[in-house]
Specification:
Layout lengths: L26 E3 L2 H12 L3 E5 L4 H9 L3 E7 L5 E2 L7 E5 L6 H10 L2 E6 L11 E3 L11 E4 L18 H9 L1 H13 L11 H7 L4 H19 L15 E5 L2 H9 L20 H8 E5 L6 H12 L7
Parallel strand pairs: 2-3, 2-5, 5-6, 6-7
Antiparallel strand pairs: 1-8, 3-4, 7-8, 9-10
Helix pairs in contact: 1-2, 4-5, 7-10
């Protein structure tokens, strides 16, 4: 019995283990940012190549670790345009959970490769890789790391009670009601030191039915793809579990979807701060519309998305 298992008194949130959590053998950290910082610290990395098409938090984590950044571009099939020696350190992304073929190629080509699986929670582990579960499921934080050389010794544990408020705000009042709490939660992770995962987040991760999540995501993706036929990926590879359906449209369509309460994320709003003008990365940011296909939704929700698109200004890539 650990110190959190007192006998008697008031009840806590009751979470039963689903026994389907796929990352039990990983290192559990506060966030993907903590994972990046720990990798850099463990391997004493002084310079690292990252794609232009990536999240600002990745840049901030690297800079906070006093590591120099070099950028590289990606092709239209999301493969890297990268020329560097075998000894350089590289981060490469499994974009949208549908980039497994490129992952296989780059892990064979380069020795010091770190796979960013923030958008691919169910991706097969690589030698060094990290995940961000809140992109896929209802947790407020958490980072999952595979790296045989890293250790969690002498790292402070996170406490995520205040950060988790938006999970309950959305249940009580909907997405718009909880949005400010969500933004506050995200901001609270900025420039945090390396921490291990909180008890709350770890308990939530272990209570989820991952089999159903995988099934619903694949079903919804394939359903949209059978009608829309405008994804980067015309079909999913075996074992690919998508984060979103990457549809190509225009600003008017994005606005119309949001007006109809179909909330589509933008990856990533700050890209112009480090990307070249007229780059493919900025084109991708402005024209890729991340249609929700996750486990919360059934076919009727997919039909609503299709209906809005068919009546609301979509355009070919």
């Amino acid at each position: 019995m650990n110190k959190y298992q007192e006998i008697g008194g008031y009840f806590a949130l009751e979470l039963k283990s689903s026994n389907s959590y796929p990352h039990k053998s990983a290192l559990h950290l506060q966030s993907a940012r903590s994972a990046i910082k720990l990798i850099i610290k463990t391997h004493n990395i002084k310079e690292i190549y990252i794609p232009y098409f990536t999240c600002k938090s990745v840049l901030e984590a690297i800079k906070h670790s006093n590591c120099k950044i070099k950028f590289y571009s990606i092709n239209e099939d999301l493969s890297p345009k990268l020329e560097c020696s075998d000894n350089h350190w590289i981060i490469y992304n499994d974009y949208f959970g549908i980039n497994s073929k490129n992952i296989k190629k780059i892990t064979k080509k380069y020795k010091n490769i770190i796979i960013d699986n923030a958008q691919s929670f169910f991706a097969k582990r690589s030698k060094i890789c990290f995940y961000s579960p809140r992109k896929f499921i209802g947790v407020s934080d958490g980072g999952i790391l595979y790296d045989s050389k890293s250790t969690l010794q002498n790292i402070q544990k996170d406490y995520s009670l205040n950060r988790a408020k938006y999970l309950f705000s959305r249940l009580e009042g909907g997405a718009e009601y909880g949005y400010k709490d969500f933004l506050d939660s995200e901001k609270s992770l900025d420039l945090e030191p390396i921490k291990t995962m909180s008890n709350l987040t770890y308990s939530l991760l272990n209570a989820i039915d991952y089999k159903t999540i995988k099934q619903k995501r694949v079903q919804n993706y394939n359903y949209l793809n059978s009608v829309l036929k405008k994804s980067i990926k015309p079909f999913l590879e075996t074992n690919e579990i998508p984060m979103i359906y990457p549809y190509f449209g225009n600003k008017k369509l994005r606005e119309n979807l949001i007006k109809n309460k179909i909330f589509v994320a933008t990856y990533w709003r700050d890209l112009e701060l480090w990307c070249k003008k007229n780059s493919f990365e900025l084109h991708l940011r402005d024209h890729l519309i991340a249609l929700p296909i996750d486990q919360r939704y059934e076919v009727d929700s997919m039909d609503k998305i299709i209906s809005v698109i068919n009546g609301g200004g979509g355009s070919p890539r």
